[in-house]
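User: quick one, fold this
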Amino acid sequence: MRLVAPDALEGLVGITGPDSPPATDAATHTNGPVVLYLGTTLESSAETVAGAPVFAVSLDDEGADALTAVDGGAWLDLRRIAVLLDDLAAGVFTEALAMANWHSNHEFCPRCGSPTTIESAGWVRRCVAEDVELFPRTDSAVIVGITDAEDRILLGSNALWEHNRYSLLAGFVEPGESFEAAAVREVAEESGVVIRNPEYVGSQPWPFPASLMVGFLARADDGAVLRPDGDEILELRWFSRAEVADPAVDVLLPGPSSIARAIIERWYGGPLPEHHTA
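Assistant:
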């Protein structure tokens, strides 16, 4: 992801000036840059002024290389730089990435397979065969901080991670399910632990590719036996605050841009030690 001045994109997406929308061909789908209008800024920041229009442009590899040749900038990973951005930039990049992922997955209609066109400044795609509008969707997921009678926190290691990386248990909400019911089910499925009355603590848009993480805190039933499902979760451990604070405990915890980190720090009572973060 990059933040660039409009003139850097001239010739790539048809921008003619700092206040003009990039040109897009409504008769095509994503064989070329996808241009999305994100609105105007309400306040000034280090990067822009109040009232400035904001556009997101999704480029293919060739377009990305061409832009790099123009301004010599570097492409950045939102996961790594989110904590360095102000609220405006973080919100813009999160929205832009989620929408770019949606466009990349909806070049063709999910109903009939026909090509789709881009409308409404990038916020709608239309099936050319059935004339049906397609709108962006967000997948809801729950993430749960679970404590026991000793006030330890339960963390699990996912099968896709390195062996010493741990985080909270999480999963997607199923059709017809409340957030609270999803939290109870996901925890039971992944760990064998029964929780009751999970309490909402906050949410975070998570554009990887397009989710809304809904956070909870919950208490495990006494005598809970840990049974990792062996599919998604390979290992489960209860951690005390002393263990989290100990540099000798070889674990990696969630990065500072994640709601998982915020929930763990809420339990911990402050910022987590940096030696456990990667």
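User: anything notable?
Assistant: The mean pLDDT is 86.
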